[in-house]
Amino acid sequence: MINEFSASTTGTDVEYLEVFGTPSADYSEYWLLEIEGDTTGAGLVDEVIQVGSTDSLGLWVSRLLPNALENGTLTLLLVRGFSGALNQDLDANNDGILDQTPWAAVVDAVAVNDGGIGDLTYGPTLGPNFDGLSSFPPGGASRIPDGLDSDNPSDWARNDFDLAGIPGYIGTPIEGEALNTPGAPNQLYVPPPPGGTCGDPVVYIHQIQGSGAVFDPAFGGVQSVEAVVTAIAPGLGGLYIQEEPVDADADPMTSEGLFVYLGEAPDPSLAVGDLVRVTGTVTEYVTSGGASSQTELAGSPIVTACGQGAAIPPAAVMFPLLDTAELEAVEGMVVSLPQALVISEYYNFDRYGEVVVSLPPEGWDRLYTPTAVVEPGQDAIDLAADYATRRITIDDARSAQNPDPAIHPGNGLEFTLDNRFRGGDTIAGIAGVIDHTFGLYRLQPTTYGTYGVVNPRPESPDPVGGNVRVATMNVLNYFLTLDDSGPICGPDQDLECRGADDAEELERQRAKLLDALARIEGDVVGLVEMENTPGVEPAADLVAGLNDLVGGGTYAFIDTGIIGTDAIRVGLIYKPAVVRPVGDFAILDSSVDARFLDDKNRPVLAQTFEDRASGERFTVAVNHLKSKGSPCDDVGDPDLGDGQGNCNLTRTAAAEALVDWLSSDPTGSGDGRYLIIGDLNSYDKEDPIDTLLAGGYTDLVGAFGGELAYSYVFDGQLGYLDYALASADLVSTVTGATVWHINADEPDLLDYDTTFKQPAQDALYEPNAFRSSDHDPVIVGLDLEAPQLRVRVEPQVLWPANHRYVRVVAKVKATDNEGSPEVRLVSATSNEPDDGVADGSTTNDIVILDDRTFLL
Question: What topology does CATH give the domain 205-312?
Answer without folding.
Answer: OB fold (Dihydrolipoamide Acetyltransferase, E2P) (2.40.50)
